[in-house]
What does this fold into?
Amino acid sequence: MSASFSIQDHNRTLPPQLDVPPRLLLGPGPSNVHPRVLSALSLPAVGHLDPYFLQVMDEIQGLLRYTWQTDNPLTLAVSGTGSAAMEATLANGVEPGDVVLVGVMGYFGHRLVDMASRYGADVRKLMKPWGEAFSLEELREGLETHRPAILALVHAETSTGVRQPLEGVGQLCRDYNCLLLVDTVTSLGGVPIFLDQWGVDLAYSCSQKGLGCPPGASPFTMSPRAVEKLENRSTPVKNWYLDMTLLTKYWGEQRVYHHTAPINMYYALREALQLVAEEGLKNRWQRHLDTAQLLWKGLEEMGLVCHVKEDYRLPTLTTVRVPEGVDAKAVAQTLMKEYNLEIGLGLGELAGKVWRVGLMGYNSRRENVVLLLEALKQVLG
It folds into this structure.
């Protein structure tokens, strides 16, 4: 005798067909996606162990090494957003009791502190006002005082628009026998990065900012020094999904199944990285700087002030101080409603005090700057 079940009919309450508004995304991310990348998303899926897909994985690794300027064999894309790649660096790099020194100069420095503590690290903090960067001497003093196993820095602090200089930091870390971990979420693909020359040991990024790809497949890399620490762990990596001792068997020659990769997202990431290579890193970095300088000049002509001095200002993400008496959120809402244009609001200590304007990847174009400046003029009156 078969059981009888009652099926509820939800047809009358189905939502309408998707009708996504055509937003211009000039906030801190995601940015708009290049048409070629969107086209790659629609290609037919193959199996995650299909020879064609394995070739795509190899191409992603090679293109990531170029974009990051590294020869690290362990370079791959994590199946997840940038926060997953961020956590992967800590899950694989940190053992319980390790001293981890984090340079906190914004919101994402605090996130590194939170994540590292969850993996049992003895977390120490170097603090800097939101809008400033650390000097080499300040980092040296921190290393001398705390003697960490890992120094973690945010290269491009998305909450403040600060670019942290990294020249000389890697050598400093070697002098103190520690690994250098760097967040390149808002710099990869838009700001000069030289991982090997700078001596970076662990780095991560995302797909939806400077690379101009949807979120969901995130760059990750470990230097041979970091891999040696991983291989000599006395405890297993605490995160199975992000365990590089397992993932390298899938991304490496063994091709051992680990999880079902997001096939079409990897197509998109591969195409986005291919666009970086076709443009050339020097040309791409210069395009982002030229577009940002056009924005900075226009803001200045309007009487608006950037939060970060130009020496440390990110070309990919500009923080603009909200004039006294202006409602930051109301301006952003009006830009969205009347111009289909998104800018970001401040986070943490800068909430209500700045707008965050992103000019990243496909969106780093002169016409977008002109549109934004004209819309701001209209909204601010």
